[in-house]
Design brief:
- Helix content is 56%, strand content 16%.
- The protein has eight helices and four strands; from the N terminus they run H-H-H-H-H-H-E-H-E-E-H-E.
- A hairpin with a 4-residue loop joins strand 2 and strand 3.
- Helix 2 packs parallel to helix 6 and helix 7 packs antiparallel against helix 8.
């Protein structure tokens, strides 16, 4: 079996049905392994649709690369298709994108009929994901949340709120700033890290006193949050 894996031809013109089915089967098994890793390292914050995509993406990529082979024109056509898919799909989190690229790499390796390489990178990267998940246990006493706050134009200074955020959060980062109501109001979006014991009402009350009592929202940072 190992000899078969190592000696599979990369010439699509001589690709046999046995090699085709073997490549697709390996891609499916590796996709299932990646989907399993994604689900069990994401706790309850995972997308069921993405799990299905991770399962099938290596198989689809394998078929595409088996079909294209050394065809340069086909490769450029594939790039055009990918660009269309990219602009017609909503961007996910950076972690989702890493998993998608992971599946593309595995599918590429299977499509080039280098299954041993695909198996090795799948095992290694899945192990890395599980190790990173175990390392996150040390931060279980904190909670990442998204803070969206409206402020008047004349109060649009980060220093007005940095003192409060330093007192009530472990860390904070301003990730987006945009205008509303023809520039008379600014919307500030922060990603903040709260301690589990932190009183959220006190934080909101303190910020409300600084932002002229305009709207403030505080929500959990789910795995699929977008900005």
């Amino acid at each position: 079996m190992l000899e078969t894996l190592l000696n599979m031809s990369t010439d699509t013109t001589t690709l046999s049905l046995t090699n085709l089915l073997l490549s697709m089967s390996i891609a499916l098994v590796l996709g299932a392994s990646i989907a399993f890793t994604y689900k069990h390292t994401s706790k309850n914050h995972y997308s069921q649709n993405l799990i299905s995509s991770l399962l099938l993406l290596p198989v689809l990529m394998c078929c595409v690369f088996l079909l294209i082979g050394n065809n340069v024109a086909g490769a450029f056509s594939l790039a055009g298709v990918f660009s269309v898919i990219r602009f017609r799909s909503a961007p996910g989190s950076s972690r989702d994108i890493v998993y998608i690229l992971f599946c593309v790499a595995v599918g590429l390796a299977c499509g080039l009929q280098a299954p041993l390489f695909a198996i090795i990178i799948t095992v290694c990267i899945c192990i890395v994901f599980f190790i990173l998940d175990l390392l996150q246990v040390s931060t279980s006493g904190t909670k990442r949340m998204k803070l969206v706050m409206l402020v008047p134009e004349e109060m649009n200074e980060e220093e007005n709120f940095s003192e409060i955020l330093k007192d009530y959060t472990k860390s904070y980062e301003l990730v987006r700033m945009r205008t509303k109501d023809f520039g008379s109001i600014f919307e500030l979006t922060y990603v903040i890290t709260l301690y589990e014991s932190q009183n959220k009402h006190e934080l909101l009350d303190s910020l409300r006193c600084r932002n002229a009592n305009l709207n403030i929202s505080l929500s959990n940072m789910m795995h699929t949050d977008e900005f």
